[in-house]
Amino acid sequence: MSTPASTTTSPAAGTATAVAHSNIALIKYWGKQDDALHLPATSSLSLTLDAHPTTTTVRVLDGPAGTAGSADEVMIGAAPATGGTRDRVVRFLDLVRALAGSDRAAAVTSVSTAPLGAGLASSAAGFAALAGAAAAAYGLTLSPRELSRLARRGSGSASRSVFGGLVVWHAGTDDLTSYAEPVEAPELDLAMVIVTLNAGHKAVSSRVAMRRTVDTSPFFAAWVQAAGADLADMLAALAAADLPRVGAITESNAMRMHATMLGAVPPVRYWEPASLAVLDRVRDLRAAGLGCWATMDAGPNVKVLCRGADLAAVAAGLADAVPTASLLPARPGPGLVVQPGAGVAR
Ligand code: PMV
After folding, report:
1. I need a labelling partner for 62 at 20 to 30 A (CA). Which of 27, 149, 207, 285 fits?
2. How confident is the model at residue 12, as a pLDDT?
3. Residue ranges in the chain assigned as alpha helix (H)
4. CB contact at 8 A, 277 and 318
């Protein structure tokens, strides 16, 4: 990442805490044009929710980070991070250290209410919060756009959790041009019911599944074309405050993404029987006159888009579709908030 124009560095070691929320894409990101920079093949559009916040505190330590960040202390929840999870955080800290011109280690504490790795956007909120806290702790002053670009390097979808409400992530062609920004749709009263069917960690990470889809699915080129058209339709539907159209595009775009990954070799299938039961129930509720539309990500769980005024009715309608499911009604949530100091996480 090149040093952003408005970045200033400070020699003083600091501490900062940041809070970010999950986002769920209405137009999905699936497939990269550049794996190292997390440049997506297509632009995407999401809704940041008031659900599943992640609170992350970064404290810059006195000593150097050491080889492969050996001196970094990374806590996820109550436990020290290990393996690939720790490596991802350390690699991200390395990026921030390079921007800040610092070799100091950091202590990171990240607390989330979301199940991790279950397709419930834990990495989106997690890396947005880490970007905000780490940048501030290492003395960088970044604009929201620069924070979005930085968060993208942790997890693509994290670029969108820097902003609240509806957000578009422009695919771009390089590090500078791939960033998210808010989309205004003031007349739309959007909400979502998050239907958690299985909070277990997914067997195939979205990184591996995307790579496999790009490399082996004969449908990938068609996906890229369809996703571009879906985004244009979605922006028009949002501008017209046409919720049924927004919902129909949301559902069909998710089906297209999953169809594309089903075409990979070997196929990537995140759905479980219970997912289908929820999709059927959404279809039945809609046929009965209740506006609701389903979307799914890299996991078996289903998110159901609806009008805010219908949130309770939709949650009630979904309640017995899968008796073991947990239902979380959610509304549009805020963007990244960063505060200097230890905040609430430590
Ligand atoms: O940012 P990642 O690597 O967690 O990928 C997110 C992929 C989807 O959730 C399936 C789609 C999206 O746009 O959020």
Report:
1. 149
2. 46
3. 83-100, 122-137, 144-154, 158-161, 206-216, 220-239, 243-262, 273-287, 311-318
4. no
